[in-house]
């Protein structure tokens, strides 16, 4: 059962104050008691004991009047998310914030809400344990340890740059709305749910934000947590914000534009600043999605996604090559041995051509009506697919010129066809897909749209290649998070990745893309895919974008399918 929103739980006083206002009254009561403290060593109990006893008495009355016993029973019946679920949500939240770097601020606020709302039952659990311990002699050490374990992922999430920026952006949005008298439901929810949960989490782990404390650098994890929490404290203590939240009454015009509790107002579908992908991409992981990952809890660890601004390449494992000799004792080359380990076929750890009609391409009338249609055919024959470990000498930059790959092997065996080589360099791995041109192909004859776009592409410059070659990836089977991270839509990857092309007329055309050169969101998506390869069935298509009427309809260059790739079976190419 999904946990109810934080501000609907009975952590209120008789005036309907939320956890945030109750927390502020605790601080004011502490200051009044401090002013009354005599400081005599003969006092029966010190200031902290007086404060706890006094506050516990008042809170106990409030909790009893609001049905706290009923809430405590609900909490004990499993309404709090599991640790596995919470780890999964922070992993999703980290990727989603990176993916929304250039999107509308409301989407990043929605991510903050979704993550914080999941942790709010555990925050309230810690609140209750502290309070119960104040008026009843209970040993809550084991229960508090459990709370600490479940809140730790949220604390770590708050230490990332993307989270800090989203928090500061949310505080600015609330501040501006209060200043202009334009507070909406989303602003109230972010104060009552998101900010309250994050503040209590910081207090639980005793994150120092006092003015007298030395301010840590924003470039450190502790510094990012410090500055994020400080920004929240500054905004919730502003008198105009306090007044606006306390006296907020949603009107009909606000209710009509606000989304679900905690989510931002839905942008207009016709808004020019909102792309279709931004409108449709936000979706909180459904219950049970965390169980699709499989394996141990470490599979849910998103902290391997670097939060550094350094462009240094990720560490790459070194694996032994198949052989440093051109031919083994049985007369097989290293390329042939690797092909046996990752064969053409139907089962797990295999590859094969995909069905072209499973991909949508621009129809002949696309420039007039934006219509797309299933691809009719592939222009090239997919003849080789390889997944390799990158060896000690690094990635192979020119597959077509290397003696231990399909082009050289095919030439030795009399194949004189033109090859199109797609060379993806991944963190620790290399993916090579090769298509061959049939000189008797029907689309090459009679001045077809495909023949025109093909010849124009070969004659293009590097920059034109980057803006014309499209990639479509389809996750057919796999975990929910991976399917969300890799949507099935055309992507001009050359405009986002470091790309180089090589063209030797009548011999080959090679495209080299360094996938690790993409932005943070792309790197996280690649990390998710590579981590889940053994549980994935995916298809990929490459095509040249038809930009003129005489280049339509589009056709695929080639498309391939890969099933449940086991990276333990991959090898390195032979060094040359």
Describe this entry's structure for a reader:
With 576 residues, the chain is of the alpha+beta class. Helix 5 (105-135) crosses helix 7 (161-180). It is built from 19 helices and eleven strands. The chain has two domains: 6-258, no CATH class; 334-569, no CATH class. The two termini are 59 Å apart.
In short:
With 576 residues, this protein is of the alpha+beta class. The protein is built from 19 helices and eleven strands. Helix 1 packs antiparallel against helix 2, helix 2 crosses helix 5 and helix 4 packs across helix 19.
Supply the number of helical segments.
19
What's the overall geometry?
Answer: elongated
Largest sheet: 5 strands, mixed
What number of domains?
2
- How many beta-strand elements? 11
- Specify Rg, calculated over alpha carbons: 29 Å
Distance between the termini: 59 Å
Low-pLDDT stretches: 1-20, 37-77, 253-280, 302-306, 308-329
Mean pLDDT, all residues: 79
Structural class: alpha+beta
The proportion of residues in beta strands is 5-15%
Major beta sheet, strand line-up: 4-6-5-9-8
- Note the quaternary state here: single chain
User: How do the SSEs run, as a string of H and E?
Assistant: HHHHHHHHHHHHHEEHEEHEEHHEHEEHEE
């Amino acid at each position: 059962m999904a946990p109810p929103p934080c501000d609907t739980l009975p952590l209120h006083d008789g005036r309907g104050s939320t956890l945030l206002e109750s927390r502020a009254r605790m601080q004011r009561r502490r200051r009044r008691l401090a002013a009354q403290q005599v400081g005599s060593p003969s006092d029966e109990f010190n200031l902290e004991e007086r404060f706890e006893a006094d506050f516990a008495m008042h809170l106990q009355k409030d909790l009893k009047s609001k049905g706290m016993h009923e809430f405590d029973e609900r909490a004990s019946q499993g309404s709090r998310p599991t640790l596995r679920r919470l780890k999964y949500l922070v992993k999703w939240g980290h990727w989603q914030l990176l993916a929304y770097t250039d999107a509308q601020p409301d989407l990043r606020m929605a991510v903050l809400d979704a993550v914080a709302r999941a942790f709010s039952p555990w925050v309230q659990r810690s609140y209750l344990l502290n309070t119960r311990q104040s008026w009843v002699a209970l040993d809550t050490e084991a229960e508090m340890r459990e709370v600490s374990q479940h809140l730790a992922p949220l604390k770590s999430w708050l230490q990332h740059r993307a989270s800090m920026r989203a928090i500061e952006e949310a505080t600015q949005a609330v501040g501006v709305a209060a200043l202009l008298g334009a507070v909406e439901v989303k602003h109230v929810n972010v104060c009552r749910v998101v900010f309250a949960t994050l503040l209590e989490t910081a207090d639980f782990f005793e994150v120092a934000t006092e003015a007298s404390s030395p301010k840590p650098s924003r470039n450190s994890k502790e510094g990012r947590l410090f500055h994020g929490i400080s920004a929240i404290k500054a905004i919730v203590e502003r008198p105009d914000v306090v007044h606006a939240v306390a006296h907020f009454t949603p009107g009909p015009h606000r209710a009509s534009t606000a989304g679900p509790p905690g989510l931002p107002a839905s942008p207009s579908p016709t808004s020019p600043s909102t792309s279709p992908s931004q409108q449709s991409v936000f979706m909180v992981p459904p219950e049970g999605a965390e169980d699709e990952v499989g394996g141990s809890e470490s599979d849910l660890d998103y902290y391997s996604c670097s939060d550094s601004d350094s462009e240094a390449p990720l560490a790459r494992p070194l694996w032994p090559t198949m052989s440093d000799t051109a031919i083994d004792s049985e007369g097989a080359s290293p390329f042939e041995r690797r092909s046996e380990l990752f064969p053409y076929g139907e089962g797990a750890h295999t590859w094969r051509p995909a069905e072209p009609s499973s991909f949508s391409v621009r129809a002949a009338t696309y420039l007039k009506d934006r219509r797309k249609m299933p691809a009719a055919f592939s222009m090239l024959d997919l003849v080789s697919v390889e997944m390799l470990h990158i060896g000690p000498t690094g990635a192979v930059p020119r597959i077509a010129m290397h003696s231990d790959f399909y082009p050289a092997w095919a030439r030795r065996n009399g194949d004189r066809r033109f090859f199109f080589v797609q060379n993806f360099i991944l963190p620790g791995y290399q993916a090579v897909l090769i298509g061959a041109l049939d000189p008797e192909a029907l689309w090459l004859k009679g001045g077809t749209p495909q023949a025109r776009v093909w010849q124009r592409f070969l004659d293009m410059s590097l920059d034109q290649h980057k803006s014309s070659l499209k990639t479509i990836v389809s996750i057919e089977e796999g975990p929910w998070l991976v399917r969300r991270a890799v949507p099935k839509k055309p992507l001009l990857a050359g405009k986002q990745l470091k790309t180089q092309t090589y063209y030797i007329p009548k011999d080959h055309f090679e495209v080299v893309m360094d996938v690790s050169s993409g932005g943070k969101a792309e790197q996280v998506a690649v990390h998710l895919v590579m981590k889940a390869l053994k549980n994935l069935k995916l298809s990929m298509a490459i095509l040249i974008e038809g930009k003129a009427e005489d280049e339509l309809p589009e056709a695929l260059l080639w498309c391939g399918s890969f099933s449940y790739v086991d990276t333990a079976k991959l090898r390195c190419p032979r060094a040359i």
